[in-house]
Amino acid sequence: MTPQRTDMGTVVGSLRAVDGKAVVRMEAAFGTDAEDLWSALTDPQRLARWVARVDGDLRLGGEFRATFTSGWEGAGRVDVCEPPRRLLVTMRPGQDDQTVIEVELFPDGDQTRLVLEERGLPLNEAAAHGAGWQAHVEDLAAHLAGRPAGDWQARWTELTRSPWPGTR
Questions:
Q1: CATH code at 125?
Q2: Could you say which of 78, 115, 135, 149 would form a disulfide bridge with 155 (CB–CB 3.0 to 4.6 Å)?
Q3: Signed CA dihedral, 97, 13, 143, 161: sign only
């Protein structure tokens, strides 16, 4: 993925394969502290403003249901919750096509660096998921800056239609 410039800085995304499955990784730094960023990642009211409507038990071991701005909806389970540092959830727990989303936060001067990975994706869906996470991270930046999220579908479409560097 090509790094994208946003008002928070550069979002660096990458795609790779591990054991025949795709991994999407996003990294970005935000001008806020870890507690505020953690809240944006775990508070259902704040999540709904930038990525997904989430209902259920959001404690360690709890199960929830999410409806993402992308239109995807399904079940999830909180597997690791170490505030305000690390969160790991399994999406579609117990199903053959389950994925794992892991988020880690790192203090970085007056900013907090976010590292987000989604693992276990079908290889042929890696680019589409990468574009989706790019749009979600940009919407997170907007939320943290006090602005409404962008048009997720339009941004995803723009990113999936962009040629890869060197492919023109």
A1: 3.30.530.20
A2: 135
A3: negative
